[in-house]
């Protein structure tokens, strides 16, 4: 089952939403220092995720230094926070507080595409959370299709037509090398 999450305006994290996010937060403080207000940093990440195409430097001053929030975001990504959050979101029942954050989580996951790579893309496709994709699915790599094609038994001498068809399928599975900005920003 695949679904697009309807857009929702940004709102600061509620106490229930923060409580739902806390179990997934890794211990990210370097050198054993206490992390200063992770809730405010997540608020900043979600706020920026709601602004299509906005750079970290466009973060309002009330959220702190943009480079600090960006570093926190990268650490979360490398720690697997977004992967775990997407899995929990897919399993969450309709009334769960994570469901109220679904649009914000999906938008934030779009920013993780380069850092999360194909494993994140594969996870998003398997969970059916199309809103977390940075462009329409047919323009992005399809790791599930390429894995399936790789396992096909072709026999000793496949015909030319079969090889041409497989070549087209593999090109489609690889996705587009460049996705126009207008398509990325207009997608969901």
TrEMBL record:
InterPro entries, alphabetically? IS402-like_dom, Transposase_6_like
Question: For this UniProt entry, which segments traverse the membrane?
Answer: none
Q: Where would I find the Insertion element IS402-like domain in this sequence?
A: 13-85
Q: What is this protein called?
A: IS5/IS1182 family transposase
The species this protein was found in: Teichococcus aestuarii
